[in-house]
Amino acid sequence: MSSSNHINFKQYLASVKLAGESVPAGLQELLTAVVKTCATLSHEVAQGALIGLLGSAGTGNVQGEVQQKLDIIANDLLIEGVQSCQSLAGLASEEMEFPLPAQGTGDYLLLFDPLDGSSNIDVNVSIGTIFSVLNKQDPNAPLQTSDFLLSGRHQVAAGYVVYGPQTTMALTLGDGVVMFTLNKVNGTFLLIKNKVKISHSTKEFAINMSNMRHWADPVRRYVEECLAGVSGTRDKDFNMRWIASMVADVHRVLSRGGVFMYPWDQREPHKPGKLRLMYEANPMSFLVEQAGGASTNGTDLIMDLQPTDLHERVSVMLGSKEEIDRIQHYHSSSAHR
Ligand code: AHG
Ligand code: MN
Ligand code: MN
User: Fold this and answer.
1) Closest ligand to 280 CA?
2) Exposure on the CB side of residue 279, measured as CA atoms within 13 A
3) How far is it, in rounded angstroms, from Cα 258 to Cα 209?
4) Whether residue 242 has its Cβ less than 6 Å from ligand 1
5) Has this prediction a pTM greater than 0.85?
6) Is the CB of 244 under 6 A from ligand 1?
7) Contact criterion met (CB below 8 Å) for 293 and 318
8) Distance from the CA of 89 to the CA of which of 5, 111, 226, 285 falls in 20 to 30 A?
9) 190-236: per-residue pLDDT in tens?
């Protein structure tokens, strides 16, 4: 099919109905700005060393992680791209300790992981951008960090853009999941998939196996049973994939089913996990639920968690429903987390 058979992102936003209503103009404005910035970022990412964007920036972020040059470039581009949106009240990012008020008078809040998969930048493996949109509860009060601390159920939109062999975006506005691919010739995102569904059962899982000795018993049990294959209790052979960019791993789960896990482990027992709730786990959980999958921290659905900190971390297990139900069952029937 040629590009001319696909509607573009703007046409999609203008035509889609949510419970019979059009997408609010302010949300269209904000999402259009995010997506336009991601198209620019895709172009930058593709240039890599040619424009000097590989390597470490030599700085650290609020999480104590070393920032890559591209982490900072992506963050700056996104701020620049959305800050003048009339509908935007404020934004928050993995790379900034505090939220930033925007110039608009509207009541949307934008959260993002500007560049996910930092360890893959320099080795030319898929990376991406993750975003989440909330409504500020009190539009007239000055912006505060607490405005962002809403559970994932409050999200009005969420998505990611994965910069891989193709630049592809997954988006939910709370009525299913759609996917777009960037036409790199003219910089427009074109609709490639409607009603994305995650198969309920799967034979594929993704986890950083090098941490196995640190996992809690229920996670170890689940993975050991997958590894036992046809000769074990699962009666089927599993395949393992691990890209180490959440965007790319979740994109695979949305595309052909599977389970993605970054669970709590005992290296840092007081940390709930590695991934961040507000701009990694929540938007991905919204997408996964909207595609018929599930997302849990072991005991609760991630979308139900009440955040207490902008940069809080969470244990994440998401994907095909049957597997997530099983993982939750292993947690509830174990004495150890
Ligand atoms: P970020 O680059 O935004 O810090 O996120 C990286 C995350 C996530 O994308 C991935 O699943 C995980 O870190 C990989 O971590 P390890 O390779 O350290 O296990
Ligand atoms: Mn990330
Ligand atoms: Mn990041």
Assistant:
1) 2
2) 24
3) 16
4) no
5) yes
6) yes
7) yes
8) 285
9) 999 999 999 999 999 999 999 999 999 999 999 999 999 999 999 99
